[in-house]
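Give me the fold.
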Amino acid sequence: MGLILCLETATEVCSVALALNGNIVKIKESSSPNEHSSLLTVFIEEIIASGGYALSNLDAVAVSMGPGSYTGIRIGVATAKGLCYSLEKPLIAISTLQSMAMGMKKHASAGRETQTGLPEPPPIGLFCPLIDARRMEVYTAVYDTEMNPVKEVSAEIIHDKSFDNFLTHGRMVFAGSGAEKCKPLLEHHKNAFFIDNFTASAQFMAALAEDKWTRVQFEDIAYFEPFYLKDFIAGKPRVKGLV
């Protein structure tokens, strides 16, 4: 059982959570665009202090390893490595998509427990987190209720037949920044359910990080590389006069 700092910067949300024994003690996050680099260390300092701890009290640092935003992932991983080096603490890497699936499961479970005459909440079935990768492409994977991967992480071009091999056999929940552009293509299917306004969050990493902590599944700090999935392609400068 450990005190673990969880960092999620792989998507549009900059999120930091402090977890004790897999339960959230403090969390701070922002969806302000392009501010991960300026907010991350501030959030870390604030939640550590407000929780009554010092950085030296940490047992490990967990970081969302991707896929997702190339720049966001680099910021999170660099910060996590720096903390682990300076504090001599182990590094835990958590799949961004698996973390999102964990959050989707909690959302669906909570909805069923509190449902009182409202539209039917998302079912407990397969969970398909989707991260927008521009145009009609998404980063995605499929997980069962135990968070085991049923379909490995991949970059997919979404069309109206996507995930048919899963949807024809049972209910499936979709969520994340990539779900919005998939919804018009897939919502016609009776087994497709969508969680709206769902974002990645460091709070969803807590249980996964605790499990890796107890199993001593740590990364080599010097050689660990995040899972970008696709190579970074810099955009062409849009300054008048430049070619």
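The radius of gyration is 18 Å.
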